[in-house]
Amino acid sequence: MKDVKIIVLMGGQGAGKGTHAKNLIAQKGFKYVETGAILRGLPKDSPAAQIMARGELVPSNELFEIIENAIKASGNNDMILDGFPRNVEQAKWFVEKYTAPESPYNAQVVYLSLPESEMLKRIANRDKTGGGRADDKDPAVVQKRLAAFKSETLPAVKLLQQSKGIQFYEVDVSPESFETNFANVCKALGISDIDKTKINVNIAATSACSKQR
Ligand code: AMP
What's this model's pTM, rounded to 2 decimal places? Predict the structure, then answer.
């Protein structure tokens, strides 16, 4: 019982979720459930793909089956869940489904916290240095994503933090050094044998999924 870890990575823009996820995978071989990438891989005529193409959020009930199947497909391997839950409705579903005492899953949440001013600085920076996403270029879009994070995702973070069945860790990722932040994430997760030769700060920018953006 409780021997399959689901590590949920949460954080605002610029917190380094993707980079932390990919480095954790490089260290420990976790399976990766990356919600945005799964959705981008759906057939173009599927309802979810059509919703995304309009730039809207996929309704939570369309996502539940997709996430459930992706978690099932990870088998008995420990995994990282990125991009889900993103709002309170999704967080409630996650708690109900994966944190009950009889569930085989050990749910952990790592919340990468960063002041808003620092988020904006990092987005501007990653856009300037060419490592960013196409939607980093427009300040109005960046502000819209920030507002959605504050009004929808932060309440979900709080809900998960207060859930008894979840081990919740907040890691302050305001230090500039990725290595420092990654060491703190690993410490929170009880990973003590970091192989420094495998750490790759640019891993998110070189991955196949960010090229699709
Ligand atoms: P992302 O790569 O996380 O920015 O996600 C890309 C797109 O996928 C978003 O604009 C949404 O349309 C959709 N999406 C990703 N994750 C979620 C989620 N948890 N809930 C609803 N829609 C999502």
Answer: 0.91
